[in-house]
Structure formats: structure tokens, C-alpha cells
Amino acid sequence: MKSEIISLQEVTFTYTEEDKNIRPALDNVSFTIHEGEWVAIVGHNGSGKSTLARLMNGLLFPQKGTVRIFGETLNEQNLWETRSQMGMVFQNPDNQFVGATVQDDVAFALENNGIPFEEMVERVQQSIEKVNMSNFVNSEPHHLSGGQKQRVAIAGAIALQPRILLLDEATSMLDPQGREEVLSIVRKLREETDLTVISITHDLEEALLADRIIMMNQGEKYAVGTPEEIFLRGQELVDLGLDLPFAMNVSRLLRDQGVELVAEHMSEEELVNDLWTSHFNK
Amino acid sequence: MLEKMIFGRYIPGDSFIHRLDARAKLIFVFLFIAIVFIANSWITYGILFVFTFLIIRMSKIRLYFLINGLKPVVLLIIFTFLLHLIFTREGSVIFEWKFIKIYEEGLRQGIFISIRFFVLVILTSILTLTTTPISITDALEALLNPLKKWRLPVHELALMMSISLRFIPTLMDETDKIMKAQMARGSDMTSGSLKERMNAIVPLLIPLFVSAFKRAEDLATAMEVRGYKGGEGRTRYRKLEWATRDTVILLSLVVLAIILLYFRQ
Amino acid sequence: MDITLQQVSYAYAKNTPFEKRALFDVNLDIPSGSYQAIIGHTGSGKSTVLQHLNALLKPTEGSIKIGDVLVKADQKNKHLRKVRQKVGIVFQFPEHQLFDETVLKDIMFGPMNFGVPAEEAKSRAIELTRLLGLPEEVLEKSPFDLSGGQMRRVAIAGVLAMNPEVLVLDEPTAGLDPRGRKEIMDLFYRLHQEKGLTTVLVTHSMEDAARYADRIAIMHDGKCVLEGTPQEIFENEERLLDYRLELPQCVKFQKKVEQMMGKKLPTICLTEEKLAEELARLMKEEREV
Fold first, then answer.
1. Does one domain contain both B13 and B118?
2. Which residues of A touch C276 (CB under 8 A)?
3. Are residues B110 and B55 in the same domain?
4. How far is A140 from chain B (nearest CA, A)?
5. Which of A213, B76, B99, B254 has the most C-beta neighbours closer than 10 Å?
């Protein structure tokens, strides 16, 4: 069992302390993320998932409970050290792009951490290569697509060689092509290194790539499990405002039409096989 | 859509002037402004003109862009020319019509002042046409750095400048989008009384401001998360490198000054 | 109200060194009451086409007829304004256009610009907030105090309040969560059916186009390369791949099932519901054989 890298214990957070009538953004949430895992945090807009991201890198501190990163409770003293080990990519591709050009932006975190010049040059180049943007080193942000900008953000996040990559709805504002670009880069990075990935999303495709899914609802932790375990909850997810995988949707619709199936399937192949064996191969 | 403008009017290129260090170019322009005032005769102004022409050639910038750079000041040049033409009363009269008398000195001064304007505007244009705004910012930061001792927040100002520059095209695109969205709702900024047109700016400005504030907030968060905590302990990725050609171009100014002083009347 | 594009070409920054052709000889018919989807990648020209539909842009060559107004390169602007009331465009992330002190005033902005009296504009605003599922209290709030989803609905109300005859939607679901997406698309479809509102959907989603559109036009590199009913378009998988587009998920799945069974379903199914229905029917037939 891999070691704990992030752990939340009974965390409660509310934005509006003055107003007792509004429910807390997060209510008594606890979970553990292990080193090397890809965990997706899913939920409807307003479920608390973005607040989790901010608690995980010290932009906010909980009113109750503790947030532990790398085994230590996050506080004002270890905040900056922790941040240098955690790369974060935000939702809006433009509003995190600080540099005048791609390479300038990737260098930003390195500059902030006082990395010497020669090392910066090497790391910037490597990070840009890892996200397949080497042809765009001197491009300016307004010439780049959303997907390209997010890839640059990822390069900037991994330049410090962090142990954790936190994607806060990083694909929400992208078109399908951009989403595909970003997700395939993250997959590639995970294959090459032991990066822990935490991906906050409401995108189904993204959630399916994770090892585990933490489902949030109305500020509470609703469920935790592998993608299969979570999606087999079927209707519950739909009621909570989330998508089901295509094959699962079709399985349920077929059952509604009176077609008997062995199970509700996650993958199209399984569904096709089920139809074949149960119905067409008589 | 950036239909008509390239911000900062930077035109990419590989000329000698393009490759000069931005600091050298900035210093060059400042010194040049002073040197221009040495000229006071046909010969000296002629030399200035030729010098400027040489710089234009070395920059390989197309005439189209230089002319565009002059457009905003053309009226000013003409106005100043006319002022001198009409109000300077020295030398012999060369033209007379009703109560208007044009004197030789007036014409001379008019032409000289116009050349001065022309040459200054062209050279400053060449600065912005051959140097990226970000390089100019870096150069300013480098040149103003000593002022840190007098508590001038040089790093912060330079960072503010560079982030603002980076966002200008993005903001222009956004302005375009908002304008179109409001026009699609019947807002008309091109016709109607002055009051009506001013009212039509509100639906453009407010969303822009709101969005700008949001951007600023998001950016600050992103910067903090990426480890930014002020200028202390930061290293620099973008470097300016001084080369021999930069010393050469500044020396050429010294030579110019000497020549002008020699021929000055 | 019909809209017809005839050999429309468009170039940005014409006659400057930055001239860029965006549209080449586009022909497109959008008959009154139809639901047309325009699909294409970023850079395909679909946004440029969209801006022609209410004369925000005028063709540099060719012409576009919007209702009874003919728009060509040399058209004077004052005639074009009335077109904008008839063709309402909901831009991407429409919540970015909100500006007024209250939601009510913002929704009234559009209609009042076109001369609708305040009383009438107000009653339209009230009706639309109800239609879009917003609580009535929202009307007196500042639009900036609302959640993102609510802001979007307010912005949409602002466009619908003009009572357009044609509704153009530019990626209306961008940035929404799954439930939000479904609600918005269903709402537009209801409006289309109940009010006969001609609808033009500019989208990346083949699935949405399949589900809602009567006709699909594919844009690629500034040209309209394919046009037809969804069934016609989806028959042509190779051509779609040429344009880096894929079949909608349920059509792809249908093909897999057909391959497995060794026979085809009577039609190409455009939604999962239809697919399930057809498969169930087929299996019942098989059993009876």
C-alpha cells in the first residue's frame, strides 16, 4: 500500500461565516490520497470540489479539521515549500498565463523559486517538450488555442518536478480537441513518472481515467470508489447531475425497453458481447 | 480580431536594428533626442536626415509601417510648420498675398522644425517597430534598477508592465467580443447623438471591467500558487545580452554629434 | 424567416498587410422553422459564418439574404440594425455580456434598444425568467450576484426578450456541467418546437447535432464541405474523418452492433433512446422467428 500523500480529516469550511443559514461549502469531509494515485474529484457545480482544491494548496484554511500534505499539517510556515512540490492548473487558460511567451510562462515558477539560470533553461526546455509544445516556445498566448494554453500551464506546473499535479477543472473551458490534448499529456506524464494526479472535474472521460473517484455532493463526501464502483450506482449519479458512460446509458435504456442484460456495462465492448451472447447467438 | 493593429507595432524581423539590445536602443533614442537640437543649418539638418535614412535602411522595415507611424503626427507637423511660416518675421519677404507675408527665415525655421519632428518620430517608431514591448520593459527595468536604492519598486513595476502587455491582445479580443454581443442586442455605438453614443459605451465598459477584475483575481491566485511572493530571491529567465554591435551603435551617435558640432553654424 | 448565404467569402483586415481569408464561397440555406447545426473545428470558419447571420460582419464577396434584407459588401449600416432584432445570437459564454444594475434592466436592454416600450419589455422579462427556471426574486438582484449558471440564463433571456425569429446559438453548453447542458439544450429545443423558432446551433458536439438538428453543415478551412440531413452526413464516415470529425457515439455503437449481427438496422439512429428502441424491436423480431 503506497504511502499517504494528502489527507483531509473532518474538514469543514464555510465562505460566509457571518451567515449561519447558508450551508458550509465543505462539511466534515475526510479522505486520503496515496502517492502515485490518480484521483478524480467529481460533483455538480457547487458541490465543494473547487473549495477542496483551494484547501489543498493553502489558498484557504479550514475552520475545522486538518489538511495534511506530505505528512505535515498545512500551515503558514510550510506553505511555500509545499507549493513548490505541488503543481496546479486552473480552469481559465488565459487567467493563469503570466509570461509574454510560452517559455517565459513555463519559467515563472522556476524564477519564483530562485532556480539558477542554466538549470532554468534546461528545465523549461524539457517541460515544454513533455507537453509537445516545442514548436511554440516563442508563441504569444493570444495565438494559442485553449488546449495549447493548458498544456503550457501543465509544463509550468511540472517544471519544478512536483510530486503532485492538481488539475482544477482544467478541461472545463476547452473544446473536445483541447480536452483530448490535455488528458493525453497527463496520461503520458503518469506513465513516465510517479506523479500523483488529482483532477477536479465534471467531465466523464476525465473521471474514467482515474484510479479512484471521490464524489462530492452539497459539500459532503458522497461516495468513494473505483470508476466502476461509482458508475454502477447508475441512476443516483444522474439524479446528482452527473453523466454516465455511454454504454451504461444504453444498457439502462435497453433494460427499460424490456431487453434482458447480464449487467449494466461500463464499456461498449462488454455491452456488444452481452447482446451477442444473450440475444443474437441463439 | 486584431484587424488593424499590432500592439506596440512590433514587426518581427532579422535586421541589424532588430538584433540590437533593447537597452542600447532605448539609450540611443534618448541621446538622439538631445543631439537633434545641435542641428541649426541646412547642412546639419541634411546630415540628420541622411543618418535617419541610414537607420531606416538598416532596420529593413517596410515603408507602409513607417507611414502609418507618422499618420498621428502629420497634422501636428503641418500645424507647427504653418505657425513658423506665418509668425516668424526675419529675413526678406519671399511671398506676399493680401495681409499674409511669408519671410525667408519663417520658411527656413518651418522646414527645420518639420525635419526635426519627422526624424524624431521616425526614430522612435523604429524603436517600437523593431523591439518587442517586453524587451523594452526589460530594458527599462535594467536601466532603472539602480533606483531601487531610492525605494522605487522597479521589479514590481516591470512585472506589472509585462503582465499588462501580455494581456493587451487578449483584452482587445474580449472588447471585440463584448462589442459584438451588445451590438447583437441593438446597442449602437456608431450613430446617434453624443449622449446616446456615450450611453452605448456603458454596456461595453462594465463587462470589460468586471472581467478584468476577475482576471486580476485569478492571476494573483495563480501567481501565488506558483510561488510568487515578491521580488526577493527571484532569478531571471529572460536575459538581455550586450554585444559589440550595441557599443558600435552608441558610438555612431557620438560620431554624429561630433560631425554636427563641426558643421554647426 | 429564411436566411440564405450565396457564395459568401470573407477576409479579415482587407487591403492591409494582415489580410486573412476566413470564408471561401460559402453557400448555405436556412429555411424558416428549421433547426440547423453548423459543425467544425476552431478555425473552420464557423464563427465567421455565425457573425454574418445578423450582419455583424458583411461578406467581402457574395451576399447573404436575411428575411427580405440583402446584405452585401457595400451595404450601409443603418439598414442592418433591424436584422439584429430578428436574428438573436447567444454568443459563447453569454454571461460575459451582462452589465446592468438589475437583472430586469439587463433583460430589458435588448428589446428597448429596438423600440419596445418599457411595460412590454418588462412583461417579457418576467415571462422569460419563469421560462428559464429562474426564481422571480432574481429580477431585482444585480446580475453579478448570481451563480454562473443563473447568469447564463439571464443572458439568454436578454436575447430571447427581443422576440427574434431566428435564434443562433454559439456553443451554448460550453463550461456547463452535464445537468446544465441537458437542461439548456432541451429548453432551446422546446422553444424551437413551440414557437417555430428557426434555430442555428454552432457546435463541436456531433451528438447534439444528431439529437436536435434537421440539417447539418460541416465547415472546414473556411468552406462548407458537407451539408445534409444527419442521416446523410453520418453515412459518410471516411469523409468526416478527413475533416477530423467523428461520428456521434450512438452511430458508432450502432455500427459495432450491426457488424456483430451481420445485418443493418432500418435507419441510422440519432439518439440513444432511438437506438435502444430499434435494438429492442429487432430482438423481439428475432425471437419470433
1. yes
2. 250, 253-254, 256-257, 259
3. yes
4. 8
5. A213
In terms of CA atoms, which chain B residue is nearest residue C91? B181
pLDDT of C25:
92
Strands C87-90 and C69-71: unpaired
pLDDT of A282: 56
Strands A196-201 and C215-220: unpaired
Partner-chain residue, chosen from B165, B223, B235, that has the shortest CB–CB distance to A100 = B165
Which CA distances in Å does B176 have to B171, B204, C167?
Answer: 9, 9, 21
DSSP secondary-structure letter at A2? P
Range of the domain at A255: 245-282
Residue C68: CB atoms within 10 A of its CB come to: 7
**For residue B207, is it within any domain?**
yes
pLDDT tens string A5-53: 999 999 999 987 777 778 889 999 999 999 999 999 998 888 889 899 9
Q: Hey, what amino acid is at B177?
A: K
Residue type, B42: W
SS3 C227: strand
Q: How many domains does chain B have?
A: 2
Q: Output the CA torsion sign for C178, C46, A147, A116.
A: negative
Q: pLDDT, tens digit, for every residue of B237-264?
A: 998 899 999 999 999 999 999 998 888 8
Reported ipTM: the value is: 0.90
Per CB-CB distance under 8 Å, the chain C contacts of A253 are: 272-273, 275-276
In a domain, A34, yes or no: no
Per-residue pLDDT tens for A148-197?
Answer: 999 999 999 999 999 999 999 999 999 889 999 999 999 999 999 989 99
pLDDT band, residue C285 (cuts 50/70/90)? confident
Assess B202–C contact: CB distance below 8 Å, yes or no: yes
Q: For residue A117, what is the nearest residue in chain B, using CA coordinates?
A: B237
**Could you give the strand order of the β-sheet that contains C166-170, starting from the edge strand earlier in sequence?**
C87-90, C166-170, C198-203, C35-39, C215-220, C223-228
When CB atoms are compared, the residue of A57, A90, A108 closest to B218 is A90
Nearest to B42 by CA among B120, B121, B119, B109: B109
Looking at the annotation, which residues of A are catalytic?
169
Set of chain B residues whose Cβ sits within 8 Å of the Cβ of A51: none
List the single best residue of B62, B185, B206, B210 to mutate versus C (max C Cβ within 10 A): B185
Radius of gyration of chain A (CA): 21
pLDDT digits (tens, 9 = 90+) for A224-262: 999 989 988 888 888 887 888 888 889 989 988 888 888
Query: Are A272 and C275 an interchain contact pair (Cβ–Cβ within 8 Å)?
Result: no
Strands C215-220 and C35-39: parallel
Residue A11 falls inside a structural domain: no
The residue behind cell 427581443 is C162
Least confident among A78-92, B168-182, C15-29: C15-29
pLDDT of A275 over the 90 cut: no
Residue A250 forms part of a structural domain: yes
Contact present, C100 and C109 (Cβ < 8 Å) = yes
Pair B220, B247 in one domain: no
Domains of chain C by start residue, with CATH: 3-245 (3.40.50.300), 248-289 (no CATH)
* Between residues A125 and B76, the one the model is more confident about: A125
Q: Are C196 and C29 in contact (CB under 8 A)?
A: no
Whether C169 contacts chain B with CB within 8 A:
no
Q: Which three cell numbers stand for residue C287?
A: 425471437
Q: Is B19 domain-assigned?
A: yes
How many angstroms from the chain centroid is the CA of residue C173?
Answer: 11
A42: left (phi over 0), alpha (psi -120 to 50) or beta: beta
- Partner residue facing A156 (CB), from B132, B166, B226: B226
